Amino acid sequence: MQFLRMKPGHGEVLLAEGDVEITADEERLVAEFRAQLDAGMWAAVPTTAAAGRREARMVRSFEDIPRDAERVIFFPRAAGGAR
Amino acid sequence: MLLALFAVSVVIVALFWEISFPRIERWSAERRRRRERSAIEGYDPGRERRAEQRARQLLKSCVNEEEWEMYRDLGFIRVWGRLAGGPQEGVTANAAVAFGAPYAYLVYPHKPIVSYLPQTRRLLAEYCVAFPDETRPYGSARLPDSDDALAKWMALTGDERRLLDSANMHLPGRQVDPKAVQRDLWRLSEWERARTTRARRAARVPTP
Known about the structure:
- The complex is a heterodimer of chains A (83) and B (208).
- Chain A is an alpha+beta fold and 83 residues long.
- In chain A, 19% of the residues lie in helices and 42% in strands.
- Chain A has a five-stranded mixed beta sheet.
- The model of chain A has no long low-confidence stretch (mean pLDDT 92).
- Chain B has helices spanning 2-39, 45-62, 65-74, 93-99, 145-166, 178-204; strands at residues 77-80, 104-107, 113-117, 122-130, 168-170.
- Chain B has a five-stranded antiparallel beta sheet with strand order 1-2-3-4-5, sandwiched between helices.
- The termini of chain B are far apart.
- The chains are: A alpha+beta (83), B alpha+beta (208).
- Chain A binds chain B through residues 4, 6-12, 39-40, 42, 44, 46, 49-58, 73, 75-83, and chain B through 44, 47-48, 50-55, 57-58, 61-64, 67, 88-90, 112, 128-144, 147, 150-151, 153-155, 157-159, 162-163, 166-168, 174-175.
């Protein structure tokens, strides 16, 4: 599983990578996930629905991430634009 | 006589001010924006281009093939609305209209999301939303264009209500020119027609 983060002036950066079936990797991923959410990021997992249609699944906790997910993408939380 | 002349000159000045004020305001805002842009320290156009290329690859790897081609060719992505029982996944635009798809969005990079009725092309609202990265790694909080479009796509397909709750909703025309959106909807319909025709032709070509 890869944790990617969108970054201005860079595109995505790889934050962490690991196998969730390995305890040490999972702990590292959990810590990184919490750090990103604490930093105000939103997290999404790109998925493919039953009909083959692609969509995203927003996740708010590490347990929400499907075990077989390949990527979790972090991006800054939405803020209302021009008033 | 003098009083009349004075009154006329006051009226002239007032009219002139009325006409020129919006122009002065626009010029001043543009000047301010230009100054802010150039004030970003360490702005590197090459780095921004590379960032955009990376962002495009990420976008391509996440969205559907049709959505990627739409973005590549037209510069925006249409996302069907899901809060009112929209069309099922994998439904084409024509079928969606036939089934009465309630509404859809046009997702532009760094512009408000525009919702509309696919049946009538009537614009419903603008959702002004941004994803500012306040860590400002290179002096700017602005994501590359394709990352911004992908963030909107993920948030809309993943949790539409949460995104809309975060956005400032306005009537159409606040930031995006309704005529430009109508033109984009026309371009989208032409693009879909051409794409369908190409797909039909490709399906008819006998394999050797």
